[in-house]
Predict the 3D structure of the following.
Amino acid sequence: MVRKYFVQQLGLLLMVSVIVILTNIIGYKMPVRDSIIGVLLLSAISLVGLTISNFMSRFVKLPSMMYVSLLGLLLACPVSPVKDIVIETTTPVAFLAPATALGAFAGISLGKDLKEFVKMGWKLVLITLFVITGTFIFSALVADVVLKMTGAI
């Protein structure tokens, strides 16, 4: 069962990796070698974290993202023996590169469920628009405050 899960996740990560590598190369003019190595390391961390999550779900129900993030943090923390390799390899990877592809996938996903969404009523549509707008505005405000506090802007 873990093997089947591993193979499925590997396939998905490879597809996402190809998109990220292509967008890094085309959009950010990143060298092919650096892009491939950085994305493969990030994919390996993700795959190990997802596998740990699948195994641990028998005992504790926690989101997979927690395991992936925790593994990445542990590998890049100052006491990690591999921190220099992890940081050096992943720093050049532009994380905003796949944003366009993700937006397209989200739009396609929303488009197929739009009729069901509208059936729920205009009030829910209005609330959703307020939530999305509020999330965007407050995220931008928090980012602005943090960037000003750190002297980045």
User: Anything to note?
Assistant: Residues 130 and 136 are 10 Å apart (CA to CA). The radius of gyration is 19 Å. The helical segments are 2-28, 32-56, 64-76, 83-90, 99-112, 114-119, 122-150. The chain has a mean pLDDT of 86.
